[in-house]
Amino acid sequence: MTMSHDAQAYNFAYLDEQTKRMIRRAILKSLAVPGYQVPFASREMPMPYGWGTGGVQVTAACLVPEDRLKVIDQGADDTTNAVSIRKFFARTAQVATTERTQEATLIQTRHRIPETPLTEGQILVYQVPIPEPLRFLEPRETETRKMHELEEYGLMHVKLYEDIARHGQIATSYAYPVKVEGRYVMDPSPIPKFDNPKLGQSPAIQLFGAGREQRIYALPPFTDVVSLDFDDYPFASSKAPHDCDLCGARQSYLDEVITDDRGGRMFVCSDTDFCASRQAQGKVGRLGVGQAEGAK
Amino acid sequence: MIRIDNLSKSFTLHNQGGAVIPVMCGASLTVAPGECVGLTGQSGAGKSTLMRMVYGNYLAAGGSLIVGDLDVASAAPREIIRLRRKTLGYVSQFLRVVPRVPTLDIVAEPLLALGTPSDEARDRAAHLLQRLNIPERLWALSPTTFSGGEQQRVNIARGFAHTFPALLLDEPTASLDAANREVVLTLIEEAKARGAALLGIFHDESARARVCDRLVDVTGFTPKVAA
Amino acid sequence: MTLQEKIVALDRPILKVEGLTKRYGPRIGCADVSFELYPGEVLGIVGESGSGKSTLLSCLAGHQRPDLGHIAFDGRDVLAMSETERRLLSRTDWAYVHQNPRDGLRMGVSAGGNVGDRLMAVGARHYGQIRGKAADWLGRVEIAADRIDDRPSAFSGGMQQRLQIARNLVTAPRLVFMDEPTGGLDVSVQARLLDLLRGLVRDLGLSVIIVTHDLAVVRLLAHRLMVMKSGRVVEQGLTDQVLDDPQHAYTQLLVSSVLQV
Question: Is ipTM beyond 0.90?
Answer without folding.
Answer: no
